[in-house]
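We close this part of the discussion by returning to an individual protein. The amino acid sequence and the backbone structure tokens for this protein are reproduced below:
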Amino acid sequence: MRRPRAYRRIRPFSRLRTGESPRWWGSYNLVKHSFYENIREATLQRTIAALGALFLIQVLHPGHRPTLVDLNVIRSGNREYDTSGFARPALKKVLLSSPRKIARSVDYPNIWAETEFFEFDYHAT
């Protein structure tokens, strides 16, 4: 099934590589400071990008990861066969390292964060 255009892969921080602010950030500020004059900036696509950015900040922040494991947002194992990977205490310990270290290690089973709208694969960073 093909996802609607707004729900395909989003990269809310991709413009930072070129030194530009994300489009959703500019729209957010325009709407925040002058709601009625800038209401057309508040599109669904920009809202999804902003929420995706918030999701990434949450799953990449080491201090938030243990809570996200407890909430079953961050999991490990095989998604296709729904097999478990690390037990929660071990997964929390692994997540104390950087996502890049997790991605480079072949010793770790698949680790990902997933909500109803977004997902992030630690092995793909």
Remarks:
- The chain has a mean pLDDT of 82.
- Residues 62-125 form one domain.
